[in-house]
Amino acid sequence: MSQLSVSQSTFRVIDLIRKKRDGGALSATEIEYLIEGCTKDGGSIPDYQMAAWLMAVVLRGMTRGETAALTQAMLHSGEVLDLSFLPAKKVDKHSTGGVGDKTSLVLAPLVAAGGLFVPMISGRGLGHTGGTLDKLESIPGFRVGLTVPEFHRVLKACGCCMIGQTEKVAPADRKLYALRDVTGTVESPYLICASIMSKKLAEGTDALVLDVKTGSGAFMKKEEDAVFLAELMVETGERMGKQMVALITDMNQPLGCMVGNALEVRECIDVLHGGGPEDLRDLCHDLAAWMFFLGGASKTVADGKRLSEQIIASGQAFERFRHMVELQGGDISVIDDPTRLPSADHRVDVPSPQAGYVTSILCEQVGTACVILGGGRERKEDSVDPAVGIVVYKKTGDKVSVGEPLCTIHCHSDAQAARAKTLLEESYQIAAAPPAHKSSLVHRVIYKGEH
Ligand code: URA
Asked: Is 198 in the pocket of ligand 1 (CB under 6 A)?
């Protein structure tokens, strides 16, 4: 019996839209037909039909099988990297985005120094959250736009490489994301899962650790939404034969103390030297432990954590970072002396209006304050200022006296800082008594096996 290819199939797009509108489940072939039709040869399916189908998905949802089929179809709309020539397991980490969320810069060299390969394709800042590529580009000369052969060479030479999405990776996601952005169809866990996983699976990794953020600085403010998305992504990755885990982690306040591109690189260098703030250090060790465990470099997650601590203490993680920066064209003199990173000479303190304890921080506003300073983008075409940012001194549960700085804005003038200062003042809640409950950094772990 002859088989029809997807493009020869005789589906009518309107029937597929109606099927989803009425709550039906599409077959893998039907989903492939839609994705091929909107991506290949300029797209034979018009945007208005794809937008109608996307809205039907937002309203009706998808089964796990449909989500996996959509992820597969989007993944295979472009190039899937073949890293089978590398002599050890490939592992990566993906974060759903937060404020001061800078663990990638520590994890890639740390896990590479432990004998695994970390092929990391990262993104830029999105909304109020920072992006790994913007942080890396604050290192003068650092190139995130490597070709695939260059990516291979760096990976082989130092075990890790951090680049941006190439034109050829998951083009269906680029097309659909742009459409979702303007049709009110971003907010669907099924579409978010397929979008993230299609890009991450194109890297050719064997295992993926997901850091799914929840809280006031995350996209998923409610924990149940974060858990739902995490479970969906874990199951989707497992269906494709990948080792998967998701950590649901706290984003009710900035991670670490630095928010802003060059400031965050500086804080990561501190962590790579064994210092830095405790919450950032702890989360890096927790995530690295899972990367080591899933990649087979440790027998248990607890062993993975010990390995992570040893590698940092030995200086090997820092050396690996320095090597990666050098191979990607970055100026290593700023890695050796981080005071040479771009910096803004003007400082504006945000003093506490009263004595007491910090009971909560509206973390999204801290991220927005950094964007307003120029540390992120208000429009897609904006460039970012690597030097600006916020140094956070007081976090939830900390005692403060009246007039004591809660944080300091790094900027170029008082006028530039004015809007950001108001947002930061509003974001701190201070009361006479300490908060009754301090949330833990890792809220829960979604993993099916023994660890
Ligand atoms: N990040 C992505 O890459 N895709 C989404 O849909 C949402 C966040």
From this structure: no
CATH architecture for the domain at 91-337: 3-Layer(aba) Sandwich (3.40)
CA of 156 to the centre of ligand 1 (A): 29
Residue-range domain boundaries for the chain? 6-61, 91-337, 342-431
pLDDT in tens, 128-178: 898 999 999 999 999 999 999 999 999 999 999 999 988 888 999 989 988
| Alpha-helix residue ranges (DSSP H) falling in 202-257 | 223-239
Beta bridge partners of 212: 248
Task: Assess contact for 348 and 421: CB atoms under 8 A.
Answer: yes
Q: Determine which residue's CA is closest to atom 5 belonging to ligand 1.
A: 192
Q: Is the CB of 196 under 6 A from ligand 1?
A: yes
- CB-CB contact of 407 with 347 (8 Å): no
Alpha carbon nearest to ligand 1 atom 7, residue = 192
Q: What is the mean pLDDT of residues 49-60?
A: 97
Concatenating the DSSP letter of every residue in 122-144 gives E---BTTB--HHHHHTTSTT---
3-state SS class at 26: coil
Give the count of beta carbons closer than 10 Å to the beta carbon of residue 255: 29
Q: With beta carbons less than 8 A apart as the criterion, state whether 31 and 66 touch.
A: yes
Note if 299 is an active site residue: no
Residues in the chain: 451
Architecture of domain 342-431: Alpha-Beta Complex (3.90)
Task: Let me know if the fold of 6-61 is the same as that of 342-431.
Answer: no
Task: Identify the CATH assignment for 6-61 out of 2.40.50.140, 1.20.970.10, 3.40.50.12280, 1.10.240.10.
Answer: 1.20.970.10
What span, in angstroms and rounded, lies between the C-alpha atoms of 163 and 265?
A: 16
pLDDT at residue number 10: 81
The closest alpha carbon to 386, from 75, 72, 137, belongs to 137
Q: Which atom of ligand 1 lies closest to the CA of 191?
A: 6
For residue 51, the one-letter residue type is A
